Amino acid sequence: MRTMIGENNSSEKSRLFHDIGVIDFVIVEMNEYLDTHPTDKEAIEYLSHYVHMKNQAMREYAAKYGPLRISDVNGCRQNEWKWALQPWPWEGGC
């Protein structure tokens, strides 16, 4: 049973990390679109929605697994400096 919990935790972590990447892709694309269509109010609302989604997902990730960016350090519940203790992406951390 212990292995299944760890696998579920790893699966959830991977899913959340993947979702953050997908949301970030949408944000970058919308940013580029708005560079050429700066008055498109619907696109601005769409971008705002996805920025909110990303911030929420980043806070959730930080609370569960440690921060992905330094600005999310305050959202961590642990009493240790997880930023330095978690594996780096090249070490398989993400």
From TrEMBL:
Keywords: Capsid protein, Virion. InterPro entries: CotJB_dom, Spore_coat_assembly_CotJB. It holds the Pfam family CotJB. Residues 15-91 form the Protein CotJB domain. This is Spore coat protein CotJB.
